[in-house]
């Protein structure tokens, strides 16, 4: 049973393998999720961007529209959490998935039990963030709307993913303070970090790129070598 049985979460599976798609649908339905299945990338993009779903499971190798292209386009339209599940399990593929806006990446083959846990973790994080009182964090031209999960710089939407928004929010809440990687893993990703885990670094890199694209010539997110990251607000 999933952690949200009182109000079943709505999941969209975008997977062209009919056998795997069926197994995923049955497994997640048994966990009391409401599950929809789509086998085409272009159709899946329209469904994922509709605002009807709480989480998307996305394959990369799809007909109609490549999964990474789909994800990049989806991030322009909707902040719905996305877990990529793909046979492309090497480090480069994982990096591409996270940079494209995935909240998590699970290489095939994977255990259904692990998938279920990862889904619960992402949904729990989203639920906790939605239950926070609506507020707007501001610093200079930077505005973070917690209720809408939108970050603006000088009025322009930065197009952050859910994870990037949370990362920027935590850094802004602790502005000018050095936050360690273990702390950020727990506060942002809600898990511990492994010795070779680069997930946080990738999210930081992606956030910095979007801040630059949004008009900040010098990223306020600074690395403090051997300690962690800090947000400098002097020039915001």
Name the features.
single chain; 236 residues; alpha/beta; Rossmann fold; Arc Repressor Mutant, subunit A; 2 domains; 5-stranded parallel beta sheet; 4-stranded antiparallel beta sheet; globular; Sig_transdc_resp-reg_receiver; OmpR/PhoB-type_DNA-bd; transcription; DNA-binding response regulator
What would your notes on this structure say?
This protein is an alpha/beta fold and 236 residues long. The chain folds into two domains: 10-130, Rossmann fold (3-Layer(aba) Sandwich), CATH 3.40.50.2300; 133-231, Winged helix-like DNA-binding domain superfamily/Winged helix DNA-binding domain (Arc Repressor Mutant, subunit A, Orthogonal Bundle), CATH 1.10.10. The protein contains eight helices and twelve strands. It has helices spanning 18-30, 41-48, 67-77, 91-99, 112-131, 162-173, 181-189, 199-213, and strands spanning 10-14, 34-38, 55-58, 82-86, 104-107, 136-139, 142-145, 150-153, 156-157, 179-180, 221-224, 228-231. α6 crosses α7 and α6 crosses α8. The longest helix has 20 residues, at 112-131. The radius of gyration is 18 Å and the shape is globular. The mean pLDDT is 86.
State the gist of this model:
This protein has 236 residues and is of the alpha/beta class.
